[in-house]
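Cast an eye over this sequence plus tokens and explain the fold to me:
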Amino acid sequence: MSNDRISQLFQIVDAKDADAFASFLAENAVFRYGSQPAVQGKEAIRGYVSAFFGSVDALRHQVIDTWERDDSMVCQGVVTYTKGDGSDVSVPFTNIFRFEGDLIRDYLVYVDPSPLAQ
């Protein structure tokens, strides 16, 4: 998957569009956010992500660097969440993507979401 396509994915995430997000996933995809249990299957992931999008007022990703190898990509950056009270919380993240053709088979998000609960 190209860097342009990954940039488009982050724009969709920042727009909180769960349906468009799911269009990037393989049917048998696996998604894991932080230390939460993994979610498997495109529709289950769409539902999980939709619920997460509803838990924050907004989010913005700034990708700082990417690394590619064979069918994998790693993105490192900072995500800023706008909480329900209007305050912003910024935390570093690393995403690992594994691809099945042009679709994401594994979407692993390494982030500490605990500041969202504070």
The radius of gyration is 13 Å. The chain is about 25% helix and 45% strand.
